[in-house]
Amino acid sequence: MAIRDHGDPGDAPSAPPPLCPPTNDARPAAAEQARTIAAATNAATLATLTADGDPWASFVAYGLLDGMPVLCVSSLAEHGRNLAGDPRASLSIVAASGDTDPLAGSRITLAGLVAKPTASERDEARAAYLDAVPAARYYVDFSDFSLWVLRVQRVRWVGGYGRMDSATGDQYAAASPDPIAPAAARALAHLNADHADALAAMARAFGGYPDTDTAICTGVDRYGLDLRVHTPRGVAYTRVGFPARLQSVGQLRSATADLARAAEPARGTGC
């Protein structure tokens, strides 16, 4: 079980409260959120320890080997010497966001121990780094550069204000990135532009807000939709889950269409 010590995903205060419980508010676990964020970029802040035990933060690029970050750093760099002297390290990865408040976005910290890739991993680790950082082909084989794999032992996910959770390294390793993530922005734009009435119907039927006037989709993933609902009582946030977890982005269109069809008969019926 993940350790939840300060708020669960989705438990940020909602005003006004729902009039009835959402039908299905399933959402990604912290480990899945972390795998998705890690897979979406190739840059992070690396925290290492100096020989004197002082913290040292630096900007690095990374690839992923079965979800584990692969670093390629020079022994001439401060962080390269730090990793050689103390394997304890963590990566801070920030998800892309258009929000002007940087603390409102999602980010993760992956902590653990670095190690040189094993003989059987060496080629895969090198390929993973080059796939993520193609320009590294100019230096990856220099004698002062080394590949390191961060064996993740602890994960912290923050989804914005009031949304945070932890996961173990084993949970992180067993999870997978959300296949919907690469298409999420396009899907959001389409849903809000062309299916506003359907989103409001979903909020009324499944989101716990039968008094919804309008709804805007603010997030989509393999488990469902995040909605911002406008009611006569004020603005609130809710979750409408798909009947089953999506396995591919190709299922997204039919899953949302099925939700819309199922919601329509329930228009205005209340809880």
From TrEMBL:
Task: Give the InterPro entries listed for this entry.
Answer: CREG_beta-barrel, DUF2470, Haem_oxidase_HugZ-like_sf, Split_barrel_FMN-bd
Q: Which domain of life is it from?
A: Bacteria
- Pfam assignment, any one: CREG_beta-barrel
* Record domain DUF2470: where: 184-256
- The ranges of region (Disordered) come to 1-30
Q: Name one GO cellular component term.
A: cytoplasm
Cross-referenced SUPFAM superfamilies, in alphabetical order? Answer: FMN-binding split barrel (SSF50475)
For the CREG-like beta-barrel domain, which residue ranges apply? Answer: 29-173
| Designated name of the protein | Pyridoxamine 5'-phosphate oxidase
Its lineage opens with: Bacteria, Bacillati, Actinomycetota, Actinomycetes, Mycobacteriales
